[in-house]
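Both lines are quoted verbatim for reference:

——
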Amino acid sequence: MAFKKILVPTDGSEYTKAAVRTAMELAKLTGGTVTALYVLDQTILTNMPMDTAVMNVYNTLEKEGKDAVDFVRDLGATENVPVELSIKEGTPVKVILDESANYDVIVMGTLGRTGMSKLLMGSVAERVVRASSCPVMVVRSSEASN
């Protein structure tokens, strides 16, 4: 199976940067294209009181998303790999799974910045692996073993 269309969900953390690097290597081997996906997690906003603080958080997340996908774009330019950028709003697992039908493989990190919610709800990577309509390559960052 040729992995020409590669989806790499990213939150900009060191954990996902390892997955981004792996996606770039895979794209170089297959002549593929990498799509960097950042999901602006609406669950963070739904638990906040509706006031100007919500807009500040939204703007911060939006900037974080732009920085995360820009890292992928810049690495793609350095590695001579075509990169597409996508920032979507929603729940990360749902958005990634919705997108999975359009890709040959998903390359993602083992741990992002989910903190305590990861322990309570299970990791995004684990839930994507269980339900994805395409293969998922999970990349363990050297940071994850510290």
About this structure: Residues 116-121 have pLDDT under 50 and may be disordered. Strands lie at 5-9, 33-41, 83-90, 105-109, 136-139. The chain has one domain: 5-145.
